[in-house]
């Protein structure tokens, strides 16, 4: 009987330790686009291929997808730079469902229009978030680290 009680207590201690580690674990990333993107297809994933920070290793620079390592609220932002006469409409999606839009529109303007969008998303472990072109094509997103995608667990 005492052994059963000790085992229950030990299991509870182990569970609390796991929860504490999950709370203390920092999850954040910062990525950018090194290559200019032109004439992308409808709903094509924007792959931010340069990673300068990836605490928790939740962002995959080969697929452009962030996978939540634990339940919680995550804060994301992304910036798109286009050029005069071009535009780039993108959206952040969670498991394929649109959450927010970004519209960087250089039509009728001179210079380099820049647009930043933000979304706080409640996620479950294993949920996925990424940036993709909207239902229009992505005409022009400037590379050379001007476009970026980042996120952090709050």
Automatic annotation (TrEMBL):
Chief place of localization: secreted
Domain of life: Eukaryota
Cellular compartment(s): Secreted
Domain C1q residues, every copy: 22-154
Coiled-coil annotated residue ranges, if any: none
SUPFAM superfamilies documented for this protein: TNF-like (SSF49842)
GO-annotated cellular components: extracellular region
Keywords for the protein's UniProt record, in alphabetical order: Secreted, Signal
InterPro entries with a match to the protein in the record: C1q_dom, Cerebellin_Synaptic_Org, Tumour_necrosis_fac-like_dom
Protein name as annotated: C1q domain-containing protein
